[in-house]
């Protein structure tokens, strides 16, 4: 089955429906998972929902639901989003599952056994209305000089009992982890931020609450629930069946990649490795903090009225177009912006006009002029140059860039190969050769047939549905669709021997249109 590869997304707060940022992260994780599968690895992709904590409890109260009812309703929307975006996860984990409580309590016990948890007092400005603590710096002044939360609710200096995690003990170990494993935090800008943060010194972390009860109970302290991040981060272990000694855990832990957004890098690169070291477990290989997706340069929010439902977006433009656009348009790791016009322009120029049109033209000509039959042919230098160029772009450049999570650069290399095919077809003009030199026309079309196969295999992780359709039309067996297949083509000769013909092609990349009011 190949070397194991375990990738996770953040688990989303289901206190609302999924937004575009959730879709972006899920798509990127799925692309990475499909890429590694196509490279022959034994991949496991985990996603899920983060259902405990104050935010969930507050939202449920606003809606007159129990937190459990709210999470049941809302997590289904995240499952539906994955289906709509063709995100093919192996595990969808919900933190309210009993096995997750077991795992969270087990990691807690191990941290405690290691001497890293102690009871103390948590003090701060607390708003009963918000059920939240605020920093002095966040407070605003109310009437008569009273102190108010940023939400304008009254705050009181409050002292509660809390468990603390000795984070301060892990400063040096964390800095050593970053130095010894330069790829542990990506991209570089995020790594530098975290090194600077830890270098300033770490304070111990309050890891339990007594002010509300929607969470995992602290073992031995029934009036405490765990701080939501302790339980949330543990999801990556729960999904492997830990603390049972499962095959999945032995095979997939430590994770190869935690893919998350830039706002939660601190939790994943400081707290999480410290918890794991404390529990005597190996730390993940890499945490990548991707950028934020903006709508025409603005954050989506209810007040701006620009919140996009990712499922509706996929229905409108097609799931492959949305996936292609996100991976192509945004330099991975940086923030990016989207708009309906940008999706239409990008996908029409590249997917429909350059690549889709090439596929359609070549397959139609083979169907019409060669009865859809493949054959052996002798190639000229021009054919070999094209074949070599396309093969290199697809099997060397695309794979190198995708492996480094440089999706945009990988797709750029792919587009150069598409352009090379279009330049070749114009130069060779097979439509003219049909009358003057049918033998040569066949060689040109079959050279292009092989190039299209390479192009399609290379881009399949990004646009799996359309690529699957094209590979079906080309008659490529399912077992021959990985990157390894780019270097052998035994199936081609088998196909020639059987004489099986290609069916009449149907377009896989429709041109997109904008409704009149948006164009
Ligand atoms: O943070 N663009 O959940 P969450 C891109 N439950 N990504 C975005 C984004 C945007 N506009 N907005 C949010 C949580 N994200 C925790 C995670 S993991 C153990 C616990 C990303 O629902 C965000 O960075 O607020 C995060 O990676 C993911 O969406 C879920 O965010």
From TrEMBL:
SUPFAM superfamilies: Anticodon-binding domain of a subclass of class I aminoacyl-tRNA synthetases, Nucleotidylyl transferase. Transmembrane segments: none annotated. PROSITE patterns: AA_TRNA_LIGASE_I. The keyword Lipid biosynthesis does not apply. It is found in: Cytoplasm. Keywords: Aminoacyl-tRNA synthetase, ATP-binding, Cytoplasm, Ligase, Nucleotide-binding, Protein biosynthesis. Its main location: cytoplasm. Residues 415-509 form the Methionyl-tRNA synthetase anticodon-binding domain. Belongs to the class-I aminoacyl-tRNA synthetase family. MetG type 2B subfamily. This is Methionine--tRNA ligase. It comes from Novosphingobium capsulatum. The lineage of its organism: Bacteria, Pseudomonadati, Pseudomonadota, Alphaproteobacteria, Sphingomonadales.
